[in-house]
Design brief:
This protein has six helices and nine strands; from the N terminus they run αββαβαβαββαββαβ. By secondary structure, the chain is α/β, with parallel strands linked by helices. The chain has one domain. The radius of gyration is 16 Å and the shape is globular.
């Protein structure tokens, strides 16, 4: 059964953004489109959020409305070459973090350093890495969370009942395969906007 309309309440540790007006406008648009929320974000100041399934550009639109409706600040990763004038300020305001893939320190190391240097940081990633069918997840998100010492929060965009579903946080253990199996289990049954093969297994970052 579809959950009743409600907007998750944030704990005092969760990074925030927006205003009462932005939350009302985004929440109204999301509700009008038939979407609802299920579950809540954990009250933590740092986390890696993984979102799946990712099958359409509409996932970004729904995700953005969801973020503003809840009032949570989620950062995302982008190539450093994107962060140039005149869009640099806008991209950073939207939560963009520039990553230099030509740097001697890899992408994972750069984000782990960013976590250590930040008082509060919530980074959103797609473990599938593409809208196309995939057989394996990228595991960079797990290595980032393990290196930063923060939990992984699974978030499903289920286009069947049109529910944004928040899962329980998972603190990375020494067993990557078991952690990934637990996370994949949360997404089992969640439908993307388009047909897509289920993700299974792992892949290097």
């Amino acid at each position: 059964m579809k959950p009743a309309w409600r907007v998750p309440t944030l704990g005092d540790a969760v990074p925030r953004r927006g205003s009462w007006l932005s939350r009302q406008l985004a929440g109204g648009a999301l509700r009008a489109a038939g979407w609802s929320f299920e579950g809540s974000l954990p009250n933590v100041s740092k986390a890696v959020a993984i979102v799946a399934p990712h099958t359409s550009n509409w996932d970004f639109v729904i995700g953005l409305l969801g973020l503003f409706a809840v009032g949570v600040r989620v950062s995302w990763l982008g190539k450093h070459t994107l962060f140039r004038a005149p869009f640099r300020g806008l991209l950073r305001w939207l939560g963009g973090i520039p990553i230099n893939r030509r740097s001697s320190s890899g992408a994972v190391e750069q984000i782990v350093t960013r976590f250590h240097d930040s008082e509060a940081l919530l980074v959103g990633l797609s473990p599938e890495g593409t809208r196309k069918p995939v057989a394996r997840w990228h595991t960079g998100f797990w290595h980032i969370a393990a290196g930063a010492g923060c939990p992984i929060v699974p978030i499903a965009f289920d286009w069947g009942p049109r529910v944004i579903r928040f899962g329980d946080p998972l603190q990375p253990t020494a067993d990557l395969d078991t952690d990934l199996a637990t996370l994949r289990g949360f997404f089992a049954g969640a439908k993307g906007r388009k047909e897509k093969l289920p993700a299974a297994g792992t892949d290097a970052c």
